């Protein structure tokens, strides 16, 4: 069989598309007209230095922040004109962990499921499954404000997955999560992706991004500086080296000599 006889692979459906999306805060162009195509059934990494616009971008995708301009489609559904349908297709782990933290873990997941229009019985079953998988069964009866940072992240991750969305938008999902729990979360996400789910994640952990992501976009000063398969973006460097290069290099640290003159 020659190459010409091989079946042409179907192009992957897009889990998420952004066209000309912009957000300005006062005089700051946090996101300056970006385009993104996130194919379904993969991990997709959104990288960028501090202040590059990652959280702003993810907040607009999640429907938490309205873009000044541009179009966002979730699995083909326009977020601007059909927000309920678009939001039903995604689960979100926001960066700043603001939640209804006077509830117990079980109550929080119950109300999250109710807001998603789920049946109470299904929510209860899935709550138990997620708590067992993520290892917070013992915390379900406790008030969320008393959780540690890592536990809060886990319960919010569970909340994002509860309604089995097509797309998971995860802002720094592994920050404050211990290595054993991170491995567990990755195992769950691997199964999700293998079955067609899509994970859009932002992380400063370059090793992790390099390990799991098929594609990445590198955002610098609100613009997509580079996008593509991880192997193509990093070339013959590590992803971390390439990231530092795209972020403007390391430069020299100057003017901190006073730090070496210790006070009494
Ligand atoms: P980090 O890696 O530090 O979390 P980030 O890439 O997520 O950074 P954003 O939080 O999206 O960056 O911020 C992008 C720019 O927008 C920054 O200059 C930030 O100061 C500004 N910005 C973000 N939120 C606001 C806000 N609510 N009001 C004013 N400026 C904001």
Automatic annotation (TrEMBL):
InterPro entries: AAA+_ATPase, ABC_transporter-like_ATP-bd, ABC_transporter_ATP-binding, P-loop_NTPase
Domain of life per record: Bacteria
Domain ABC transporter, first and last residues per copy: 16-246
Compartments it resides in: Cell membrane
Annotated membrane topology: Peripheral membrane protein
Alphabetical list of CDD domains matching this protein: ABC_DR_subfamily_A
Transmembrane segments: none
Database matches in PROSITE patterns: ABC_TRANSPORTER_2
Major subcellular site: membrane
Entry keywords, A to Z: Antibiotic resistance, ATP-binding, Nucleotide-binding, Transport
Matches recorded under SMART domains: AAA
GO molecular function, one term: ATP binding
Protein name: ABC transporter ATP-binding protein
